[in-house]
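Continuing the series of single-chain predictions for the mutant panel. This is the parent chain; the variants come on the following pages.
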Amino acid sequence: MKVARFWVPALALCAVGCASAPPPQPVPHVKDSEELRTALETATLSTLVVAEPPKVDVQAAASIPIPEHPSIRSAVIYFTTELKSDIQQSLLRSAQYRTLIDRVLDEAKLPKALAYLPVIESAYLQTLTSRAGARGMWQFMPETAREYGLRVDWWVDERADPDLSTRAAAAYLKDLYREFQDWPLALAAYNAGPRRIHQALEETHSSTFWDLLELAAIPRETRGYVPTFFASLIIASDPAGYGFRLSDPVESDVRRVEVEGPLSLRAVAKAAGLDETMLRDLNPMLLRGKVPRGRMTIRVPSAYAEKVARALGSRRGDHILSGGM
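Parent structure:
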């Protein structure tokens, strides 16, 4: 799988340079999208990628207030120029996971806007690993992943499991919001760690993320991280106006089946008449292509779920067909 190039640093650092001064040609906020569309149609009509009819996600953008700050406008400019192709691919890839993410956020009573956090975290790539060791769609570090119930060891890394990692991310984000009572600060803490944000607030006697940004009191990556998140929301609220397109969420065709290890995915594929490569792609959390000793669930195509359960149940005892994603 092609790995997004320097994904988090490339996105997170893009806004820092203009954090203290307005960009030369600021991009209008969401409310000015009609003016922006007119300007783009005049200057760069040939570069626009417009869906018919265009898909928008106003609900997500409205679920968290978008501040006015030069760094956010700078991030929008960067997204619509140098990173346009990467951001477009990320937005399209998000359709595979939006049904899952939206359901989990709704259950946790969290803002729909958080469904776009993986745009700047991982581009929705399940096996993306940062230089610092963060992994998965939600870029959990091993310690935090374990704290929120994810298994991370030599055999299994559930940070790469879209279902389990999304639930863990929702729980972590909810805890951070309870702690900071402010989404920009909670998101900064998601990136840099809550202790570092508390320390910066105390040392500078600040009360907002934007104060910390202006004072350069937090890591450079974090200073860009929050603005780029808001830039993704601005684009999602009017993708066509910014030269992007969204796709409708794709309904998952995957179910989870409980199996008992030790068991190789090759054996599962052979028993159920499944393609082994497909099965491995559905289960990137199994680092060795094997289910270790004990019971756990694996992801299989919905059409094969009962067949897998029957095939393995006849050989190894009771295997429970679990619910879908």
